[in-house]
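Lab meeting, item 3. Inverse folding demo.
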């Protein structure tokens, strides 16, 4: 998952200048000559509590106005990695490994544009696992039909582990890889990101409802709406099968009921999957 700079520069700048001042004040308070030990302890305790408060506040702000299931969490990332490990999905280390996987047919090339989607990104690598491409085609085709010919903007697909390290250094990725549960699933070729920037509010609401239904009702994806990135991160699961389900999409009409949910009729999916 990537973090792109958005139109919240003023708010971010205020937070980035205020927090260092508060932190410096409490640290200096604890280091003053003659300060009693308990003062130092209290100062550090207040500092820790304030840091926790900012973290909770930031999480609530990032999740405002979207379904809870799309908010993203450590548990969600861990689940994505559990599925990737269970199915022994490849973890692309570098471009050499990516080229080898493409040559073997493990990864397939994604066209720069197709019916319902187009690729755009400076470091975007146009390759994915076959079932990822199948889901991308299905979702994009339905969006194309519902939006009267508009296309989804895909900004990220597979990444190498070296790509992920660079993103971490630039502080635009949450998946730090410090534990197996914290790895980015973009390295597996099973995930891709959709930018919200070209979409209208109605189209964003439509996509939210569809992703929630696909995740909650069918369990064929794990999706996160990254508010700071203006993007949807989607991991497609290996048991995804376009013929295993049908989905009746809601209309993008402004007068449509906002609470309406896509109707899904399920068929038995014979794929083996780990229990969540």
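The presenter then showed the designed sequence:
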């Amino acid at each position: 998952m990537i973090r792109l700079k958005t139109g919240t520069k003023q708010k971010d700048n205020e937070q980035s200048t205020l927090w260092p001042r508060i932190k410096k004040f409490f640290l200096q308070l604890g280091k003053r000559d003659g300060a009693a030990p308990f003062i130092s302890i209290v100062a550090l305790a207040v500092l820790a509590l304030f840091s926790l408060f900012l973290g909770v506040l930031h999480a609530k702000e990032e999740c405002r106005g979207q379904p809870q299931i799309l908010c993203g969490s450590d548990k969600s990332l861990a689940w994505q990695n559990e599925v990737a490990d269970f199915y022994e999905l490849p973890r692309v280390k570098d471009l050499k490994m990516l080229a080898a996987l493409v040559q073997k047919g493990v990864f397939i090339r994604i066209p720069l544009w197709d019916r319902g989607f187009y690729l755009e990104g400076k470091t975007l690598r146009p390759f994915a696992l076959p079932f990822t491409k199948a889901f991308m085609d299905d979702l994009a085709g339905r969006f194309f039909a519902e939006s009267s010919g508009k296309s989804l903007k895909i900004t990220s697909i597979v990444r190498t582990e070296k790509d992920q390290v660079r993103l971490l250094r630039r502080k635009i990725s949450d998946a730090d890889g410090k534990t197996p549960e914290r790895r980015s699933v973009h390295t597996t070729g099973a995930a891709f990101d959709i930018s919200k920037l070209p979409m209208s509010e109605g189209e964003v609401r439509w996509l939210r409802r569809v992703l929630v239904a696909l995740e909650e009702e069918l369990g064929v994806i794990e999706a996160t709406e990254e508010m700071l990135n203006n993007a949807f991160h989607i991991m497609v699961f290996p048991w995804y099968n376009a013929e295993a389900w049908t989905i009746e999409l809601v209309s993008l009409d402004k007068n449509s009921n906002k609470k309406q949910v896509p109707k899904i009729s399920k068929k038995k999916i014979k794929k083996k999957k780990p229990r969540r």
